[in-house]
Amino acid sequence: MINKESPIPIYYQIQEHIRENINQQKWVKGEAIPSERILTEQFGVSRMTIRQAVQGLVDEGILMRKRGSGTFVSNEKVEQPLKEITSFTKLMEQRGMKASSKITLFSVRKPNEVEAEKLQIDIEADVYHIERIRLGDEIPIAIETSIVPCSIAEGLKEEDIQHSLYEFIEVKKGYQLGDAKQSIEAIGATERISKLLDVPIDSPILQIERVANLRSGTPLEYVRSQYAGGRFKFYL
Question: Which example biological process does GO assign this protein (predicted)?
């Protein structure tokens, strides 16, 4: 199974075997893979080599770790178009996944200079400051920090954002959503991001900065998000 005389690194050979098992659906999406001990015995290599192979596939998004439960075959990455405004809830529903949120911050305050400029509001205007961990089927997908003018989302309550902020804006406030301008960069997971998204420190993270607009062109939301790179991808 493993050719120790080959110039191909052993950990890479193990990764190829794991990929083959997944492609042939011997290990299906959402299913736990064998433990490190079993893989060590199966391939006849050290536990350190198994960890290197598995971690590489976790970094690629092929496998995912669940703290206290083991390592699992990843579900397909969630896709989101960069130019459109689509709520996280709708993205999950389109893929047959259950969306949920853990609210870590909900407050009203004054914007800083950057936020006021992005939202085209006065520095003395009130804004909602919202931080949520967005989950799909109870798996952390992203940390999302939203700054929303109170003048647009007046009356917003914490229970409203348990589901969808955009639904509140459209249904309860009667606004139409427009387009969005986004920038994206790759970073490594900090200790805080690692803890909140349940990913290893320094693992790939997609950091997004977005200004979403109403159909009228008025800025609706300035949001900064960190997405687990192995669980999400954007397309043009």
Answer: negative regulation of DNA-templated transcription
